[in-house]
Amino acid sequence: MSTARDQVARMLALVPYVRNRGEAVPLEQAAADLGVSVAQVVADLKVLWYCGLPGLGMGDLIDVDMDALDGEGVVRVSNADYLDRPLRLRSDEATALVVALRALRDTADAAQRDVVDRALAKLDHATEDAGARAAQVEIDLGEQAASARLRGTLEDAVRRQVQVRLDYHVPARDASTRRVVDPLAVVAREGHVYLQAWCHVADGERVFRLDRVLAAEVLDSPVQVPEEHAPRDLADALFVPSPTDGVARLLLAPPARWVADYFPVEEVRERVEGLEVSLRVSDARWLDRLLLRLSPHAQVLEPAEAAERLRRRAAEALALYS
Which CA distances in Å does 305 have to 142, 272, 286, 287, 310? Predict the structure, then answer.
């Protein structure tokens, strides 16, 4: 399934791809080079037609030659010269960027810190006063510093292959748990940092968000991950549903369509009433919270008990106001 996030990435690549290959590119070649179907490229171009500079006038939008696309089967894109221009930042924009990069540096790993340092050096060289202005900005980095220390501690445990005792807050139960884990990797995804580990309480691999770790104690005992276990690659998705999980089928109105892009859905179908999606659910409480969040823009098609549970939860929440 192609999500909106995938489409944005393709369109960001599509314009420079076409412009760097001359006046026109055969549609089939573009599809092959981008690794998608011809129909997908055509769909992307129809969206790209409405993209451009702020103002959204005819002179502001990227021009896609739809006649050449339909008649000759070639892709022509024009009025996108501004994409070749170097990025120019105002003084206040550069200052804000420097401040953000410095905060990011405190929570980054060694490889990411090197990238951030190079970006900061380029900004300092390109702007006269951004660094000085950023130095005068007062930011409370206490929480970021604590997160950086925790991340460093866990990364060290990964390198030394020793176990860690975690006190972890579980939002689904609003409770804290203590468990011994074998750390496998520390990864940053979608604005959060996670510990990938083998959990001896769950007897399986789990992913823990660092901002929910209440305490972490590095132990002297070596890791005891089962030899046959191969750590899961988290590059594509942090959480992969189990085939044994239940399936929920929802009908989403436009304000709730983001669910199809944000969560791993198994089936997506356009209907007159909205977007129908099916997704795996391992915890009924998670589904309850999602449905309350989406209300009134989501309808439960199945299972029936989820709809009944939602009505009960909503009634309980309303009763608290009285």
Answer: 45, 25, 14, 12, 8
Q: How far is CA 12 from the centre of its chain?
A: 17
Q: pLDDT tens digit string along 55-80?
A: 656 667 888 888 888 888 888 888 77
Peptide bond connecting 226 to the previous residue in cis, omega within 30 degrees of 0: no
What is the per-residue pLDDT across 191-208, written as a single tens digit (0 to 9) for each? 778 888 888 888 888 888
Encoding tokens for residue 225? Answer: 């991950």
